[in-house]
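Journal club prep — side note

Before the paper discussion, L.F. wants everyone to see what a predicted structure for a comparable chain looks like in token form. Sequence:
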Amino acid sequence: MEAYPPEYLLHPVPVLGVYGLDGQESSAPQEIQLGDGKTGTLASTLLSIFLARQVFSLYDATRYLTSAAIPPPFRVMTIEKDYTLPDGSQKASGTHSKLSPRTPDSPLYPDGLFTPLWIQKHQSLPGTIVGFYSLWDADPTSAQPRREMGPLPVSQMIEPAERDWDAALAHEINDKRKYYQDKGIKFAVVMLMTRKQVDDPTVEERCTSIRKQSGLENKMSFFSLAPGSVHDLQEFVNMLYRTLYGAATQYYSNAIKRARKRRGRISSYAAHDPSSLALSGSDWALRYDIKMAFLHEFRQDIEATLKSLEQVYATLVDYLAPGASPILAVHGHRWAEARQLADCLNIKIYRIYLYTNDSASALAQLNGHLHMFQSYSSSWGMGEASFEYWLWLSKQYRLFAESIETAIQHGFKIRVPVPSNQSMSPPSLSGTSGGCNPGAILQHPGFYFHLAAMCCAEGRRRLLESKPQAEAQADYANMSIELLTKSYEQFKVYHNSRMTLYLAAEIAGTYYETGKYEMALKFFERIGKTYRKEHWHMILTSILRWSLRCAKELGLWERTIECLVELLAPTLPMSDAKRADSLQELLTTLEQPDNVAAKQPLVINMRHINAFIQCNFQFHDHDSFVNSAVPFQVTLQTEKTTPPSPIRFNSMRIVFNQPQYNLYLTDDGASPDTAAATASPILIDCSQGTTLITTGEFAQWHTKAADLSITKGQTKVIQGSVLPIACQDIKIECIYLDLAYPNWTVSLQYPFEQVAEEHAMARRKWLQTDAQGGTRFKFMDGRGKVQQVRIRQRPPHVDLVTHAAAPALLDEYFPLTVELTSHEDEPIDAVLYVDIKNVEDFITFHVGQQGQSSGELALGQLAPGSTLSRTIYLYGSRVAGSRLVTLMARYSSAHGQAVMEKQESIRIPFMTPFDASFRVFEVNEHSEKSSYLPSGAQHESKRLEVTIRCCSTWELAIDKLDLAQVSTDLMKQATWQTGQSFDCSFVFSLTSPSILDAPEPLHTGKLSIAWKRAAHDGPFSTTTISLPSLTPRAHGLKLLADVPEKIYMGEPITLTYLLDNHTLQVVEFSGAIELSDAFVFSGYKQFKGRLLPMTQGSYQYVCFPLSAGNVPLPRLKVLAKVQGVEKDVAVQRLGDGNMIGFDNDLNARPSLSSAGVNQSTTKDNPLLVFVNAKRA
């Protein structure tokens, strides 16, 4: 396909010429950092920035209007320093340019209108020129005379040669300025500085002098640039573009004025003389209009460009119009140039409309141009019957689609059409509901890419019809595929799934026409999956036939067989004859040995294609028990139209998730009963008579022979069963129907991983025989297909009952009676397992025997309906609370069937039989003299009172109660009721060898109680109660009150206070006796003294009681100072002193400790005595 000249289609921008960046002007190139570790000179870096972009689209060229950070567009070209304009721009009067139709050497001579060379010429003519120069620097090693500069002496010295160089440079720049200014071209200069010159204070003055001498304007035509980063250089270039852009557009404005002036000198649109070869006045006017249109485009005046292009296009359409005497000879060279220019102008016009978001005008321009060509083409001899017309049309749609795609990339939005109340129909249909013409609405690019592909395909067919041996047909086929692929991608972006499938089918068809069968087959397979899934059977039938042709061409016999198998499906619409042909072709393919590609079996998943045989599977029940047969049925069903003739399968394989149940059925060779095919369903019972395969590929499979033929309109049900031997889930995995031939083995696979949706809500039914020997379906509970059965252990038919006299008591062998009653139909052998959840308790089957936390007891054989009773004993110790006891009877029948289990759990409370409390009293006595020696033995006494209470809810028979350390029976042969208490008292004498020894606790031993339940016979249980340990009191100060035992009112008594110092320190003390309302006394009221270590002091008071009863004695308050620390010394009475109480677990109990009556005296707790009444 002939391409358009790129000059016509590319968007032109102003041209900028630069010189002086080739390294010749810079005497000392400066290296700068370019990034990524790269370096370059200042000139080379600037040149790379200038030449970075040479081609601009309409959108790129106008981006500077909306973004201040983007510079105006320039196409930069490098020129020589002595560059002069081409001769055409300097032609003398009476001469013409090289591209003028009046020049004999011109390609337009003598009657050409326009050539792309004119645009190419202006793309190489700079409208603005920038020269790059460097200041001269003297060699620092040379010694040259210097003189002062300026009217006053300064520190800087100027060389005479430097001034001469600057003057010569200014003269050269001035000559350039004058030359380009005369040609209407903007000229600017950039001075490239070195790093040394940047720090030189005279450089600025030198640059100012050069600028003034050369006549350049400051900040508009004269610039200086110091070395910097790439970003700094890019910013400088952007600033330069912005500064020069106005002058560049002015250059093209002047060119437009000159063209308009020359056009005005022509007598416009004069009559054309066909006999003359030279251009007429109207031809010259059109030629200048074309020039002005492109110059407007150079100037970036979009509005003026569009207006000029439309004017030129309209004139060209008139030039191309056929007639009795056409302006241009049809199929002539000038006619071809004009038609090509009209096509390009049409493209530029609708691109500008798309740029301005005028989609309606863009589409109208395209449609108008296509209509023009269609109406003219018949008279041109290239109408709709010619391949040229369709290929031209394909090119127009393709370029339009690419233009829309470019516009969308730059933000163009395709508007969604909104229904209008105004009718767009012909007058005869104006009464119908409102709408819009789809052809008048701009579509997305995929729509036009598809039109281009269709036109290209049509052009290719026309070409093959007119030129069968055309070599270019392959190019057009590839072009159609490329266009269809682009259309596919566009429709995919816009989520048109149906259209993408259609396009994929078109691509596949094109591949097939060009002989690329492998690619065609891939596309057919891809789109076939969707049409198969969504049940577009009519389209799928066509796709399968195309796939079949491709597979046969490629020799892919597996794919061929799969297509033929699916073509037998009744859901695919076709005639009976075609379906019969498909079956015959399938059988022929399987029988031919040349079609064998491999010896491996071909497995076709019938769930992925449309199956011509429907295969379903179901179990009879959802649940079953071990050693109980589980029936199942496999249903094979065909429609009335397929298969066209009976098909006999060689074998059928039913595969379960448990391989021991797999079933392998072989064909028995019976002739099919076609007459009964449409009658009642056929039931084949394979539940009995199966044998086990011992060797081969299907070893350990069950097998049986059956009729495996199938005809059209037939329902055949194969019934089987599995006998589970363990608890498990059994489910069907897949079923295979095998066709075996000498060279092929084809297996139709029906997997059952997921339940088919069409059967999910169907009522369940089961095929069975009736009383007349026929078959009928029986409806069952539930819906869907039961394809998995859960095998559970059959529930035990025994009763496990326990009897116990709860609660149990700790330390006893608690009897638990277990009764096992059998309801099985045959004798069973049972074993009893018992477990108690406490590590310190145990179970035993005999009283007095040590056991474990779990145990088992063989119960023996138990007849049906009989009951067996056994007693076990539970022993709990230490901690009271409930115990969980688990009983499990495990049994099996006498025939060795599966073991059954019956489990029961009971919770038995355990409580302590006795509760004990303790009280420990200190016994205060007169100390012996030997105890005041440091090495003498220290003696003291403690009294232990024990209270034992019966906590059992049952009467307990007590055999004996004794203290283990002394082997003394405290009590024999008694019966205790619930809550009954028993008290006993023990006095212990504690002796410490010396005061220097640390006191050690005394272990008092245990009380042992032999007991049993009074109502039960059997041995006694033993419970031990630990007594609290006794700790000797610490050595220190002690204040004792010696009070007479009998006190009578009116009779004086002597009250003695004893202060013992059982320490090794000297104690200083002071004392004071407090008054009492119950007594009057005589003696020291206050005193002080000192006690040596291990000594005793005493103070006596004669007291006269005044009242009877419990009255407080006069309290002696002693304050002792030991090692500098003062403390009160509590008063204790001779006899029972402090008391501490303990509970059953030997924990101290404060409530018991505070219950003593003879405690130490305090202010709130005085020492009380009982005063009797007067004696008679």
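L.F.'s comment for the group: The mean pLDDT is 84. Keep this in mind when we get to the figures.
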